[in-house]
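User: Predict the complex.
Assistant: Input components as received:
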Amino acid sequence: MRQHQALEALQSQLNYQFNDNTLLEQALTHRSAKGAHNERLEFLGDSILGFIIAAKLFEIFPNADEGQMTRLRAKLVKEKTLAEVANELSLGDLLSLGGGELKSGGFRRASILSDAFEALLGAIYLDSGVKSVNQVIDSLYQSRYQKLSLSMAEKDPKTQLQEWLQGRQKSLPEYEVTRSEGQDHNRTYWVQCTVAGANLSTEGQGSSRRKAEQSAAQKMMEQIKHGN
Amino acid sequence: MRQHQALEALQSQLNYQFNDNTLLEQALTHRSAKGAHNERLEFLGDSILGFIIAAKLFEIFPNADEGQMTRLRAKLVKEKTLAEVANELSLGDLLSLGGGELKSGGFRRASILSDAFEALLGAIYLDSGVKSVNQVIDSLYQSRYQKLSLSMAEKDPKTQLQEWLQGRQKSLPEYEVTRSEGQDHNRTYWVQCTVAGANLSTEGQGSSRRKAEQSAAQKMMEQIKHGN
């Protein structure tokens, strides 16, 4: 059961008091539960968050270019970040979920938490407008804004490597999984990156194929640039 | 040369008067030209537009689900639509472009026009806030909002077909270009769509491979659903 006290605690943490409590209730109701659920609010909140964060990045990084701002924003609005914010607000304890989701631990799932956080922002917007959402986001993101730097807006190693090679009319890198080890939920992948034209190859490892590729690409960039 | 009069005419058409004219000038300056260009403003304007349109769709379609609103928004913010709005505002005549872009007719290019329109919205936001941008977008999109209906939010035929087949555990459709005719800039493609499990095949045509595939998928849906 959702507790009145817990909803009060949430609003106090947000430093925002809802005029219309049904909006707050709806934001915390997953599609799997009965009654008005939060999917439409999530759509709204997602678009508000994207705008508020864009405007803030524009302000705090007057020299960032469009690509850098786009990459910084992606970090701030990705599911993992939103689920972190949702956890700081203990949204999981407040969610209404249907039986199936409840049993399978849906209140801990990043996608459900992140959606609920976006829906909460949408609800605040409907309840009292852009300015209130802006204040709430500013306060929740304060520490994240402070940790940001333009160096975090660099392209990922695979993109960097590809652009570097393309800019020099060299053949593109190839990635191949050479082996993997461990159980499904705890697997390690090894990937070999080869640049045919340069006659170079590197190996990277990671907990997913993608991570292993990025690691191999990173090493390739280092080899090419510094010859080590 | 950009004319003072033309800038006045634009502002009158927008029903918005800039306090800071340098923002207006910057919004109309492509990266290829000298001076402060519009890429950062475009980033800002893009996010504002996404939010304003989302909020509007939320309001005018109280029964639309998240997916429908997402697809309707995509129609309203895609490059082609934005370039149309930019053309209604004659933005092409007002753009500052570098020599290369000027020669190659950049002022007519959809991507450049669409970017300039987004930058204009970003400039209005910086000049006087969300409310002003909202009014400008509302007025420019009025006729487009009126033409919208939920039936336009349907998924495209290929997606519909795939989901229909997946929902019935049937094998997925295959698409194959069977022939193409005409010059590069005016080519017609024929694509055959085959659903192995159902022992059916249809043919579609279009000015691109994608369009021909959609047409073939549309016909396949009709065959499957209505047996014609």
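Chain A is about 60% helix and 10% strand.
Let me know if you want any component modeled separately.
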